[in-house]
Specification:
Largest sheet of chain B: 5 strands, mixed
Number of helices of chain A: 18
CATH topology of the largest domain in chain B: Alpha-Beta Plaits
Helix content of chain B: 25-40%
Number of strands of chain B: 9
Strand order of the largest sheet of chain A: 3-2-1-15-16
Strand order of the largest sheet of chain B: 2-1-5-3-4
Number of domains of chain B: 2
CATH class of chain A: Mainly Alpha
Distance between the termini of chain B: 26 Å
CATH topology of chain A: Cytochrome-c3 Hydrogenase, chain B
Order of helices and strands of chain B: EEHEEEHHEHEEHHEHH
Strand content of chain A: 15-25%
CATH architecture of the largest domain in chain B: 2-Layer Sandwich
Oligomer: heterodimer
CATH architecture of chain A: Orthogonal Bundle
Structural class of chain A: alpha+beta
Radius of gyration of chain B: 18 Å
Structural class of chain B: alpha+beta
Shape of chain B: globular
Largest interface: A-B, 24 and 22 residues
Shape of chain A: globular
Chain lengths: ~500, ~230
């Protein structure tokens, strides 16, 4: 009797999703899918709004990576009014550095949240550990010192976001052509030197190093499991600068294959020439792919693992040392081991902290020249912004009419780019952990989710859904009758 | 002529005929307002300044003080009535503070905070209102209009004194209109004045917004109450 296994919803991710696994008469996996079951429709509801409100409204799509959405929208508006990088007109140094500072602060806090709160429980307790232990409260009980550090680290990132954008969540800093505020010397010193209840930047870097060491320890103890869990080869994509190194704020799009050959490299303004999107009736999340390679071969992976695969080096010392070890591990080929995404994420936490330190020591942040005002005839009515959000390459594309009303918006968010590779990951884990097994255990269910969680997917952004997620797993017979069900 | 009135039982000296909102403020008593602008004639459209004068509810901005007048402002009943009027304005339009350019500088939002509004007691009407965007430098976001008529009365063509803004229709079908020809002749500082005088985010200066950093916006620097009372605040 064939059966269908359903994990609904998937837990410890942002947004609503469910997994279905189809089993044949021998309990072998014949199909496995991540379904995204919610829809929000920001691309439609922004139409008609004044263009200058778009980055403020659209950042509300997400409570986690709002700075990325805000910046992406701001870059699109720079294009639209005819100023900034996309227009070939260099922005003033201070606004770009302020934007980068907020961006790195968000990457730090977002990665810290994903890594320590959502991923580390499995690293410390194992995928088969009881669910009541396998969470952040279990961490508090087992290692309160670690949790205190994590809370302090995340708070530091949030406070820096507040200093740059005015609020810890959904603040506003970027306006077309620049930013509305610099960073005062007093604000800078809070983060450089720390204060009561706030770490110094050197402590942040030290704690970030602890996070990487946590991964090394885990890897050392569970090397076989970590290295063999969901090995999913894919093309890797991210923004790079002229040196071929990842640039989280601006650059050209580079796509590498498993041997790190450049498959595509292009200006992100030409994305429509290269990418198309497929849809499936069973998910609200689209499947982007490279047109010329087709849907099977042309899907890409984005996010920490992809970035660490693509980048040749990193410009900060501690992150560079960690990257060399990461690159050496696969001997020059791309790393396709899904759980190594957490290794890449831990490197990026350090890298963000180091980049922030460099910027905090840059006197340009106190400069008063914050805005370039373009001439009225520089207006183009169209803009595209791309940044490397914590979860990967994020794109906002707007068009506005001559009156200034948005007429078109297209958002391709990181998790959408990862849709195909996440589905392949689900399939891989299902084949390894569930295929041929008659009984579903809680650990099996969790293995599927561990695979998904490695991408830190934000289904809220990707499909524009949000919510809290209990978990239900149901077994259906071939006629669709429920024969077994587990809930948490 | 000097007269004496009482506000919430306290004797207050005032000049006869002066506006009750101003007299109260000069004596440290805050009366919320939205359509009223000090130094301009009373509009009396929003009723948010409702108080009790000699036992009858009246819009304070429309009341010239007279000798012996007994005014009640800070009673539970009146405070709730004013709060209800604010809630009503939120329910009646489509107000989306999180993405509104006027957030932090909006009289309606600030007054909502001031009267302690958490949610509207009235069902939201979700009216369908089209934007007016054809003027060169002014964008009318009609969803946010509260029909205060400040723009109608106080923003006029500088050569002819003609009205640039007007209210068309009545009741639930009323909408703010703009004379595009006159609007396009407005000098930049008058466009800015129109946007500033609007107590909500209905009149927007095209392409301009979010220039004031969060924490340094008008009502974050000084609350609407503090602004009304100046150095007379209690």
């Amino acid at each position: 009797m064939s059966r269908k296994l359903v994990i609904d919803p998937v837990t410890r991710i942002e947004g609503h999703g469910k997994v279905t696994i189809q089993l044949d008469d021998s309990n072998r996996v014949t199909d496995a899918r991540l379904h995204v079951v919610e829809f929000r429709g920001f691309e439609k509801l922004i139409q008609g709004h004044p263009y200058w409100e778009a980055p403020m409204l659209l950042q509300r799509i997400c409570g986690i990576c709002f700075v990325s959405h805000h910046l992406c929208g701001a870059k699109a508006l720079d294009d639209m009014v005819g100023v900034g990088l996309g227009s070939g007109i260099d922005m003033l140094p201070t606004p770009e550095k302020i934007r980068r500072l907020g961006h790195y602060a968000q990457q730090l806090q977002s990665h810290v949240t994903a890594y320590f709160y959502l991923v580390v429980p499995e690293m410390l307790f194992g995928m088969d550990a009881p669910p009541e232990q396998r969470n952040v409260l279990g961490l508090v009980e087992q290692n309160p010192a670690l949790v205190k550090r994590v809370v302090a680290l995340r708070k530091w990132g949030q406070e820096l976001i507040k200093a740059v954008l005015g609020k810890r969540m959904h603040g506003i800093s970027s306006i077309p052509g620049g930013v509305s505020k610099n960073l005062s010397a007093e604000e800078r010193d809070r983060f450089l030197l720390g204060e009561e209840g706030l770490l110094s930047i050197d402590e942040v870097i030290e704690y970030a190093q602890d996070g990487l060491n946590l991964f090394y320890d885990f890897h050392e103890k569970h090397r076989e499991q970590v290295d063999s869990f969901a090995v999913v080869p894919s093309l890797d994509m991210c923004l790079v600068n002229d040196e071929g190194n990842v640039d989280y704020y601006h650059g050209k799009i580079r796509i590498l294959d498993e041997n790190k050959n450049i498959v595509r490299e292009f200006d992100y303004h030409d994305y429509l020439e290269h990418f198309s999107e497929a849809t499936e009736e069973w998910s609200y999340m689209k499947f982007p792919f490279l047109k010329q390679l087709g849907r099977e071969k042309g899907s890409v992976r984005v996010g920490p693992l992809a970035r660490m695969n693509v980048t040749k080096s990193l410009p900060t010392p501690l992150a560079q040392a960690a990257l060399e070890k990461f690159h050496d591990y696969t001997g020059g080929r791309s790393n396709s081991m899904t759980l190594h995404t957490n290794w890449a994420r831990a490197i990026e936490i350090i890298h963000s902290a180091e980049l922030i330190k460099e910027l905090l020591n840059d006197p340009d942040l106190q400069n008063e020249q914050l805005l370039m005002t373009p001439a009225e005839n520089d207006w183009t009515g169209e803009g595209i912004g791309v940044v490397e959000a914590p979860r990967g390459t994020l794109l906002h594309h707007y068009q506005a009419n001559k009156e200034g009303a948005i007429t078109f918006a297209n958002l391709i968010v990181s998790t959408t780019q990862n849709n195909s590779v996440i589905n392949r990951t689900v399939q891989s884990v299902a084949e390894d952990y569930i295929s041929g097994k008659a009984e579903i255990t809680e650990g099996m269910m969790n293995a599927i989710e561990v695979g998904i969680r490695a991408y830190d997917p934000c289904l809220s952004c990707a499909t524009h859904a949000l919510g809290q997620m209990p978990l239900a797993v149901s077994l259906f017979d071939a006629e669709g009758n429920v024969v077994d069900e587990q809930r948490r | 002529m000097s007269i004496q009135i009482t506000i919430d039982g306290q004797p207050v000296a005032a000049e006869e005929g002066h506006n009750l909102v101003d007299v109260a403020a000069e004596n440290g008593v805050y009366i919320p307002t939205l359509c009223y602008l000090k130094g301009h004639p009373c509009l009396g459209t929003c009723r948010v300044c409702s108080v009790r004068v000699n036992g009858h509810v009246a819009a304070a901005c429309s009341v010239p003080v007279a000798d012996g007048m007994q005014v009640e402002v800070e009673t539970t009943e009146l405070a709730d009535m004013r709060k209800a009027l604010i809630e009503f304005l939120f329910s009646e339009g489509n107000h989306n503070c999180p993405s509104c350019e006027k957030s932090g500088r909006c009289d309606l939002q600030a007054t909502g905070y001031e009267v302690g509004m958490m949610v509207s007691r009235f069902p939201y009407r979700f009216p369908v209102r089209e934007r007016a965007v054809v003027a060169d430098h002014i964008w009318l976001e009609r969803d946010r209009c509260i029909f205060c008529q400040r723009c109608v009365e106080f923003i006029r063509d500088r050569k002819t004194d003609q009205k640039i803004f007007s209210i068309k229709g009545r009741g639930s079908t009323a909408q703010i209109e703009i004379n595009t020809e006159l609007a396009n002749a407005m000098p930049p500082e008058q466009v800015r004045e129109a946007a500033d005088i609007c107590p909500v985010g209905c009149i927007l200066e095209k392409g301009v917004g979010f220039n004031d950093p969060i924490g340094q916006r008008k009502f974050e620097i000084q609350s609407v109450r503090e602004r009304a009372l100046g150095d007379k605040k209690k």
